[in-house]
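Collaborator request log, item 7. Partner lab (contact: R.S.) asked for a structural prediction of Membrane protein to inform their binding assays.
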Amino acid sequence: MLTKFRNSLLPPLDKNAWKDNLPYYLPVLVSLLVLIVLILIPTGYEDAIIYKGTERTSARVLTVNNDTIIDTGLVRSGEQTCMVELLNGRFKGRQVKGFNLLNGSLETDKIFKEGDKALVVISHNEDSILSVNLIDHYRINKEILLAVGFALLLILVAGRTGLRALLSFIITVLFIWKILIPAYLNGHNPIYFGLVITIILAFLTISLVYGFNKKALSAVSGASLGILVTAVLGIIFTNAFQIHGAIMPNSESLLYSGFQDLNLTKIFMASIFIGSSGAVMDLSVDITSSIIEVISKKPEIRWKEAFFSGMNVGRAAMGTMTTTLLLAYSGGYIALLMVFMAQGTPIQNILNYKYVSAEIIDTMVGSIGLITVAPFTALTGSLLLTSKNGTGNEMSEL
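Returned to partner:
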């Protein structure tokens, strides 16, 4: 099994095979090295947690007492008392009383029942338990199951390409958690730092598809130019619409947690091109692959013909890509739109609300960035992948 996994990522340990396939497999080695580094480096905020002097573990809810819960229509407030059995940690096996404080919010409150598995925070003094707070339902085991299912399905359907995609996925998650978020908290410029991280991820992701060659250079160049356009337009229209970064969910909590110097507006600007970068990379790879296919069938093709072939593919893909962005951004606002309709809010009022305007910026600017990716990638691909004299010699170097 281990040999099969290694061979799916790397070529057989044959000197000639390594030499012939090095440009294609070198990105895997680089990505594995980056993955190891990302796993090892700290975020710098490991000791900044507010749960010092506590232990977090899972617990089984044995009994519940709802006598002190006050029902006011749909809203519930008060405190739920539960007898729980601790399942892990230094207090494993103990049965203790836990408390679940209700704040009268359907969004954040949770109600436990007998047999539920909960995440609890134990405040203790050495071996003496002081209090047990029920934080939320325990979902980590189900999340792991979902992640494993995703990974297995990806590998089953896409084979070695799926393994590379999975490697890219994990690196992206770690880049965001270990590099991007700590950098923002440390006060680095969100726009500049976000651009650097996004372009690095585009380079690694696309290189895992093509290898270190002109194909990857073409796709990365087109994607990077599209991301830059999105970044510039995001800055311009965020200022023009007078949008403050506090529009982002939970952003104000950062300011009240000791990070009052953060520039939330610049973080919002950066989120625009970061959010659309995946679709940008997807489109640039599609166009590059189409140009490669055209050149392989007609090696003598000149760059202008290859450019128009790439543009034709780009035009076909743009229709679905822009709709993809629209659905991705608006999907989380269905309840809000329902409120507007139920209240009979005039359309001009809706379009002027700042959180709606923020979504319009996300969708429209991201879509404009996607539109520009087509000509950028078609141009870079046609210039890099075709020979200048039309003899087709360039394809032999890819």
